[in-house]
Amino acid sequence: MSEPQRPVVFIHGLWLHATSWTPWMEYFQQHGYQPIAPGWPGDPDTVEQARQHPELIADHGIEDVTEHYAKIVAELEVPPILIGHSFGGMIAEKLLGENHGAAAIGIDAAQIKGVLPLPLSSLRATLPVFKNPANKHRAVSLTADEFRYSFGNALSEDESQALFDKWTIPAPGRPLFEAAAANFSLHSPAKVQTDNADRGPLLLVMASEDHTVPESITKSTFKQYRHSSAVTELLEFAGRGHSLTIDAGWRDVADGCLGWLTEQGL
What we know:
266 residues, six-stranded parallel sheet
């Protein structure tokens, strides 16, 4: 019998719907993988439904989301490759640290416990959530201008608007509040088992123009893994912003990920 295709679990971050991974899924399938892109707990099936029912998305935290994906991974025939963007990247790191996958790629992954300080651009990008403490228990939407600063700053205004119209959904505020308080909490849900030497390989992808997760965050995250002998590598995309998984240059990022997986024998 032939070996089953290696599954790939794509994990979206805040403000993007799971279907934003569709081009990636098609591309990875063409390269012999078996991709899936499950939504976060409570995520409706479509962008439109998510916009109409933000209450379904609200109040889901980091542990809630991690456990949700851990159950999905446990049902797969073989350990998957985990690929996450932004907070999805953090979730992928947590799952890999707990040995729930064969490898992980965190693309502009959100800051984990131990990463300091938080750059001003990150604070501005997340201000729509932090400006009201009650947003911790709500789902918050971005305006087109807020999306342009947080995601589309390296794009034309027209492309940023088009991506905003196509993919954005409300996002739960809880993960941002949890990450912001991580270094003041002994048992923060943003803690990752960075010292695990038995985990699979990890690639951290960073974009040089990212306002939401600047390179300084990714480089600091990389340093958190210094006590592990497991493979941990960095890959930079110059001139790219937080939209790098969904904008016109997404294939370059996908090719970088595929090339790295080939190097790892995956």
